[in-house]
Design brief:
Elements: H1 2-22, H2 28-44, H3 49-66, H4 72-83, H5 86-100
Length: 101
Amino acid sequence: MRETQTRQQGSQEQVTKCINALDFTQDWASWRDTLKEAIATAKGMGISDEEIKDIGVRLGDFLAEKVCAATKEEELMRDLWSAASPDERRVIAQVFFRTLE
């Protein structure tokens, strides 16, 4: 039992460290610039727009589930994401990416 708790705590610490390394608390403009750079890099690697949108949906799921909103914008995005159906989430991701172009 104690070994399982220690292992779970270690895993949780590792996840927390990874999330903190992503620095989601930066300002909105910096966050958008980071996403623009990531999309440009993905396109440069030959990843299609559809694949990028799929990744965006998975990222949105991850952020809504695992990351506490640090800004009003992040809180709004999390609330919209949480209320949306899977199809609506794909539309949100698609529209959001369009704003980055």
